[in-house]
Amino acid sequence: MTATVNPTDPRLMGRSVHRIAFAPEAIALRVAELGREITAAYPEGDLLMLGLLKGSFIFLADLARAVQRPAQLDFIVASSYGSGTVSSGTVRLLYDPETPLKDKHILLVEDIVDSGRTLQCLVDLLQARKPRSLEICALLHKRIATELTHDARFVGFDAPNEFLVGYGLDHAEQFRHLPYIASLA
Ligand code: IMP
Ligand code: MG
């Protein structure tokens, strides 16, 4: 897949792209496939797609439109306790979905699984609400998580172990609006 990036893309704020990991066309094709996979995986029952903000917002917007069965959409906002760039392994909810989870198929939609700690905590927390099922759909998976007891069932792409931005993913709240996913030089 050839990706064209304008080296003077003003969205890059003077940074340059080291590598385009996933071009818009590749993302669109894979998201359409994921939509078909998810549609087939849930033949019946109430499906609630829960987007983990903020990173999943663009992915969820595209994915939701690729799912060809009834679904509800809501969001979840989680915050790691403590500071720092490495997730601490404990999360609290800053926004809790208004929609009841009980007896629904819950599909937690994530931007990227890195250490997997955020996901692990959220899974424990959401399981306590007694959903009918709980699965994870992650756009990207670095495949370095060792602590996951409940891994993502739906994965867009295996990702390189680099810090990626774009298509919702940020670095210090920048670059979320890039239409491609890249690592910065
Ligand atoms: P984990 O708990 O280590 O799996 O971290 C997951 C969260 O960290 C993701 O939901 C992202 O918000 C963020 N994150 C992890 N890796 C990256 C990356 O390469 N780029 C941007 N955000 C990332
Ligand atoms: Mg982030």
Instruction: Please identify the structural class as seen in this structure.
Output: alpha/beta
Mean pLDDT: 91
Give me the count of strands. 9
Q: Count of helices? A: 3
Number of domains: 1
CATH topology (fold) name:
Rossmann fold
Order of helical and strand elements: EHEHEEEHEEEE
- Spatial strand sequence of the major β-sheet: 4-3-2-5-6-7
CATH architecture grouping: 3-Layer(aba) Sandwich
Q: Could you say which overall geometry the principal axes of the C-alpha atoms support?
A: globular
Helical residue percent band: 10-25%
This entry's quaternary arrangement is single chain
CATH class identity: Alpha Beta
User: Roughly what fraction of the amino acids lie in strands?
Assistant: 25-35%
Low-confidence stretches: none
Query: Any ligands, ions or cofactors bound here, and which?
Result: inosinic acid, magnesium ion
What is the CA-based Rg, rounded?
A: 16 Å
Characterization of this structure:
The protein is α/β, with parallel strands linked by helices and 185 residues long. It has one domain (10-184): Rossmann fold (3-Layer(aba) Sandwich). 20% of the residues lie in helices and 30% in strands. The chain has three helices and nine strands, in the order βαβαβββαββββ. The strands form two sheets. Strands 4-3-2-5-6-7 form a six-stranded mixed sheet, sandwiched between helices. It is globular, with a radius of gyration of 16 Å. Bound molecules: inosinic acid and magnesium ion. Residues 55, 87, 110-119, 163-164, 169 line the site of inosinic acid.
